[in-house]
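TEACHING EXERCISE
Course module: macromolecular assemblies
Task: Read the component lines below, then compare them to the predicted structure of the full complex.
Student: A.B.
Group: 4
Components provided:
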Amino acid sequence: MNDSKRKELVFFGKITAGITHEIKNVLAIIQESTGLMEDILAVTPDEAFPHKDKFHTSLKRILGQIDRGVNVTTRLNRFAHSPDHSPASLDLNEIAEQMVLLASRFANLKHVVLKSSPSDPPLVIKSDPVYLEMALFESIEILLNVTGSGGKITLSPRKIQNKCVVGVGCEDTVLSEEDCLAKITSSERWASLQGTMAYLGGTAKAFGLAPEILLYLPDAINPK
Amino acid sequence: MDRMKILLVDDEHEFVTTLAERLELRNMKVSIAMDGETALGIVERDPPQAVVLDVMMPGLNGLEVLEKIKALDPKIQVILLTGHGATKDGIRGMQLGAFDYLIKPIDIDELIEKLNEAVKRMI
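Instructor-supplied answer key:
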């Protein structure tokens, strides 16, 4: 990535990260206000407030949504900081979990569940965060066109023959092995993924049976 | 038992006033300040046992305020509030003498636990 492209990404990231802090402040105020209502309800006798249970249920629901909002903005904040440093030390479990959360909306639209299956021990590589996130997202997009409604896509970092790999696999496809492989490798996204992986110094391989894309990643990227 | 004396410092008015109300409901004596200069004035006039201090504030930032509080009275315990992605501020704060740091939005029970621990250390 050239310097001017990185400068643009850092700019977008900085503004986005700043806004996530503002959203967090909003969520913090809603959380404290909700908490205060709960505190007051707790000291209010049941007979003095006949709708107490309904209020408790609603407040609990609001707190649940605050947690959800905090989780999403935290991930968005980390994502926005991705262009800050390259190469950077990256925990593949963290990156996989992050992409699951950030790409869930796209999967939900197709009624597909995204999840990650962490490696133990965690695998840490030196790579370009933006390009690695792009590679994972492109793989997810490719498989969203292979798996059917109700399917599941799993991101699983692991070692294969001593190499760091992130597997992006799906279940519940109705296609045959050949059709599946053809659908993966003939898509425009597949060509784009090849370019992304070349930048990272790695390769992407596709398998049609139990459809999976394996992203082979070097331990350290060559500085560009 | 004496009420715990706390100073809350955050430039978000709604946040700081609501949190103060919640802590007062738990029998704490709470003062609030929305900037570092006001906070330092309160620390000089009516020293609290512990300060809950936001790191990201206009004017003097939380780490600068922390250093000044510690210079005024090293016994006062400070708990920093940081945002996600700003963990390094929390760690830097602890190097400067903060008791601990919490990430916003905070859990009230966790804050109270930290305040109790902090005040015990002061004694």
